[in-house]
Amino acid sequence: MKPPFWLLASVLMSLPLAPLLAQPVLPLYTGSIPNSIPTATQEKSTPENGNVHVTNVVQPSLTVYVPPIGTANGTSIIVCPGGSYAFLSMTNEGTEVAQRLTGMGITVFILKYRLPNDALQPDKSIAPLLDAQQALRLVRQQAPKYNLNPERIGLMGFSAGGHLAATAGTQFAHPVGPNPGPASVRPAFLMLIYPVISFADSIGHANSRVNLLGNNPPAAQRVQYSADRQVTAQTPPTFLVHAQDDPLVKVQNSLAFYEACLHHGVPAEVHLFAKGGHGFGLHNASTTDDWSERLREWLAANGWLTR
Fold first, then answer.
1. Percent of the chain scored above 90 by pLDDT?
2. Helix 127-142 to helix 160-170 angle, to the nearest 10 degrees?
3. Which of 79, 84, 130, 228 could make an S-S bridge to 256, C-beta 3.0–4.6 Å?
């Protein structure tokens, strides 16, 4: 006689849970890390209202999330969490996003990039961009291992991570660092979510600018790191999301980038919400509209979800 279902369920629930498999972590660099100062500083992870904030990044890396077996389509996305260039918001702008994207058949690499710090880098202004460009090289290098199309690597960023993605997407022709190498650092497409774009006084995010460039950067450097001023006809197709009532990063940042894309003939799609504030990640509580579904439709329309 078979035991009743409720008894089987009770037994199964009493068994200890198997530990979750750790995601593979790829160090960005082998050997010495460029633009770094030897330090005893230790990386720190701090819980913040259900999120995890990471600071003091010394060893930049990529954490890999692969789609369910049989669903991978060869497209990959490198995700840059935000945090005003002062911390990395690793949960709502990292792991949750990776889980959503892998459900679309996309292989995801969360970039833990170095935060600008004069005590840790000789030139703090290039440290995040150096890591983003190296991430693009590394994913191309790892493409055969993960069955990826090296011409379908996208770059997604949130807030200051959006500034990093937009900078990488507009300054790929001149890689930073002493020996950049021949590999391309141009992403195939960009996804900028409530991004910091401009370092102009009128619409720029002051904290991000100060953290990256210091208190009084010269005008030329402000222009160099204002991504809307760096858009060309070669800028990758771009998907933007922003809320009109964002109190930290003005919606004009996304509008400025979109206008620049229009001016240069770059395909761009922008989704604006009346409400939502800043830092909502995947979950804009002011609306039932799911912007990640709009992203899925955009990716599909451009052929990036086909095998």
1. 88
2. 70
3. 228
